[in-house]
Amino acid sequence: MNGFDSDSQWQALLGLWRQQPVQTVVPTAILHWVRRQERRMRLVMLSEWLFGIAVGFHAITTILAKDRPDNTLWLVFVLSMLALAMGFSLVNRRGLWAPLEESARAYVDLALLRLRRKRREVHFCWLFLLIQTVIILGWHLASLYGESPAPLIHDPHKAMLILLGLMGFMVIYSLYIYRRTAREKAALERLQDKYSNSL
């Protein structure tokens, strides 16, 4: 290889290097926002799993403590509901832990995606409550008109109050999440406008 070939190769390499995109610096305000979101998301996920394990353990021990012919069905119901809730908790957070690239736009897109997933969590909670209500109501009606010696729901008035209480809590929770995510989205849009050159 002569000197001319070596120089031409170095020039070609230099040209390729200059064509590489310049890495943008992510503004501190956007980084702070996304990292605060991540800390809150980790805390919420940890509390969800601890609460799910505690509720599941309590439900299973309560079922096993009672000698009833439908214990197996209750265990299947509780375990399937736990699996559904925990599975959604994992799937809904997939792709939310890091941006696709180290750029201001990628961080803002990640923060906005987290807000959309938070709203999707509210939709799932309503669906989860509906699924449980339909299963328990259907099971109760089957026990009334079937060969079961006792109805599944012994106190319908108490069960109705519990259901109304859960629905009331869900309404309050849904309003809180929608308002909070709307405020956070507006704040992110202001950050986008402020650092539009970095995006």
TrEMBL record:
Q: What is this protein called?
A: Uncharacterized protein
Per the UniProt record, the source organism is Microbulbifer spongiae
Q: Which UniProt keywords apply?
A: Membrane, Transmembrane, Transmembrane helix
> Can you tell which superkingdom this protein's organism belongs to?
Bacteria
- The UniProt transmembrane annotation reads 43-65, 71-91, 124-146, 158-178
